[in-house]
Amino acid sequence: MKKKFIYIIGMALLSSYSCKKQLLYPDNQTQVSNQGGAPFSTSSRIQAQVYGLYNGLKNGQLFGGRYQIYNDVKAENWINQTTNSVTAYQTWTETVSSTSSEVLNLWSQAYFVINNCNLFIEGMNSTGSAVVGASLAANYISEAKFVRATAYFALLNFYCQPYVVSNGNTPGLPLRLKGNSAYDNYDLAPSTVAQVYAQIISDLDAAEAGLPASYGTDAVSNTTRAHKNTAIAYKVRVYLAMQQYAKVITEASKIVSGTTSFSAPTGVANALQANVANVYKSPYTTTESIFSMPFTTTEAVGSQNALANYFGGLGASEFYLNPNGVIADANWKSTDARRTLITTKSGKSYSLKWPGGSPYLDYANVMRYPEVLLSYAEAIARSTNTVDPKAVALLNAVRQRSDPSTTYTTASFATVSALTDAILQERNIEFLGEGLRWLDLWRLNLPIPAKNSVAAVAPSSSNYIWPMSGNEQQYNKLIGR
Question: What residues contact 188, with CB distance under 8 A and at least 6 apart?
């Protein structure tokens, strides 16, 4: 009996040791296992991952709202009224630090998206392509490259000097092109701005080649997923930021045809809507909307990220329109249809582009067709250094859609500068609240105008661009700034 009791105790101890032994070799809790390739084992799982890449991009900290919000409030058209440091107050006052929430969160979300794209591309190359076939694999990989390029450009826009400074030979970003699925050494020196742009263009060129011309009659996919015209339009934006105007013209001409009214000749029939208000109404899938972020009741962006909460006079009403900003332009006529997208409450003006209240399901625009038209016009004017008739016609197309009483002619502009100033102001009016104003100032290395109590910021000032994320500085010893 005594021997039996000792044997039982021994078995219990051995069992206990076996359990304790597992503690010596725990599963890596920071590792994202590919489970033997399971995520790429079926076409439905692969497709779900593609949708997941877009979900990362439409996160509220990125293109679900915050990217557009920071781009607008960093410039001069809005006045803050909540002084909430969590909701872009420091961006508005030009006082962000490396530990400000916007600096940390946009950086983190963009690199999260980039890493997911890297992992997806690697998984498709190793396993997934054989599952879905070469054609669909090329489509999916091209979508991942488009998403990656979009995230990298967003980072350049806030954390780096514009390309015009030293032709991009200034510190850029860590160019991470390999997926991280477990904790690793994250030390990586930043590439130059020019090198990051080169990667973005490479991704967009590959995306154009591999993406479908359209998703058929699926208007939602044609608006919320990348197709050939989406990649081309984004190249127009990127080349404009690089001031490579001949390349802007080359890309824009692929998706802009016509002489007075313009449309895309192939793929999705991108064109201006007859009424600009249609762009901001359900179902949000007009052919003018080249790329948008969708929301549903089960995938809402959250009130502190929603464009309506910042600019629409809804919810917290974080900002109202600066009465001395673009709305004060006397050349923006009261009869212009875009004036109907502005409302006044208690003596303050707000935007009606996102009229829906909580849970804030209005789509967030990332790119619309008039941006391509105005970029094309600007590139023609700057590259030819003339008041070119086609540049004027492209400007007219956007202005007359909302203000048919105004017709520009070549005689309307005494100089090329007068024409380019008119194009920039048209962009300022057309995309109010949609996240292009800081981008336009930045790419041209222009000062940020004063607004209310916030002084103007010169391009040479240390606060012209954001500092690198404090988290990146902590974990990447090679970041350099």
Answer: 174, 175, 176, 476, 478
